[in-house]
Amino acid sequence: MNTYNFKNGQIIDIKKMLIERAPTSYTEYEKDVLAIIENVQNNKDQAILEYSMKFDKVELTKDTIKITAEEMEYAYSQVDKELIEILKRAKDRIEKFHIKQKQNSWIDTSEEGVILGQKVSPIESAGVYVPGGKAVYPSSVLMNVMPAVVAGVERIVMVTPPASALSGRVNPMTLVAADLCGVKEIYKVGGAQAIAALAFGTDVIPKVDKIVGPGNIFVALAKKAVYGHVSIDSIAGPSEILVIADEYANPKYVAADLLSQAEHDELASSVLVTTSETLAAEVEKELTRQMGYLSRKEIMEQSLNKYGAIIIVDKLDDAIAISNDIAPEHLELCVKDAFMVMPKIKNAGAIFLGDYSPEPLGDYMAGPNHVLPTNGTAKFFSPLSVDDFVKKSSIISFDQTALAGLQKDIVKLADAEYLTAHANAIKVRFE
Predict the structure, then answer these.
(1) Is 267 helix (H, G, I), strand (E, B) or coil?
(2) Residue 329 a catalytic site member
(3) Which residue of 169, 175, 231, 401 pairs with 75 in a disulfide if CB–CB is 3.0 to 4.6 A?
(4) pLDDT, tens digit, for every residue of 17-33?
(5) Distances (CA, A) of 296 to 259, 290, 292, 293, 377
(6) 141-192, pLDDT tens digit by residue?
(7) Would residue 330 show up in a list of annotated catalytic residues for this protein?
(8) Where do the H-state alpha helices sit in 125-250?
(9) H-helix segments, 329-399
(10) Catalytic residue among 240, 329, 332, 359, which?
């Protein structure tokens, strides 16, 4: 892990290093992704079956794409009972948090003869993509599904790849988490072909209005390609964490939290910005010590060597400025008075305050969503929320007297835009 001392004038373009990891940088795969999407559009389930054999090494038929009640029962038999109870508790905390995000329709009648308002309605259907490759993420099932449930989405469809190592089954924890959330339709399909199926529909898999959920580069590029035919949450990049720490921070905790992101994959990024050279040195020692007993050491080493950094700055305001410029997915404030620093943070997906609010708390049990903007998009994107699963319609009702009061203004503006039919639609009502 490289250390850069801004006190001595060292400068590194951290943003450039992070942005090169974004899915939009991997344009060499777009041609293959577009070919998969076109094949699914044209050949529907037959293309899905062929790709399942090619990529997942699993032979399916149209009758076995959808998860059955028997498969769900088997999944429950394979998952530890205590883990099921933990998933239930996590689900309840996530649901409780997202209920607070719900917006109600409203009507304003304060102006004589005028009724204005906003109607908030859930989208009718949503597709949730759940990865099944390097790791299993039942927590992502909860985080992607529960906002849709709280929003009132009528039809929630989940897709996730089968695994040849599981004899063509889907990971049991993934299925149990989905069932706990009330998902009734689950299909054994992954990759770009799954995104295409959700976007355009097949005989077996229904078209949806919006697609959410993380995935590999092919999934990310497929979501980018189908946007416009359907809505998507975002084009998520690899995970990242930035820790702002002062001399009061515990180096053991800081190192552990940096490693918690580095273990995701080789493209994950962990950055420490600190005002203390002593802390920087102690964190570096702790990283080496803790990696020695953790299971994904090789992945963490690659991640830290390529996309990790320790940045030493003069003062806390410098650290805040760097963080706001990077706009990290996860930001930890490991400083003496985190709540005094927090208002200065402009751009971050999630902000964790204090020694006992580590990033994994947010991943699993805190309640706020862990689907967060990456690669600097926290400057203009927000975490996944109930808002992602609703749409808003404006309500407008004027009586004759109220419209008459605006008649001349509307006609004047329409004429200024050379839209005479617009003006006429007003004039005919007062002839």
Answers:
(1) coil
(2) yes
(3) 175
(4) 777 777 766 778 899 99
(5) 10, 11, 10, 9, 28
(6) 999 999 999 999 999 999 999 988 888 899 999 999 999 999 999 999 999 9
(7) yes
(8) 138-151, 172-180, 191-200, 217-226
(9) 338-341, 359-364
(10) 329
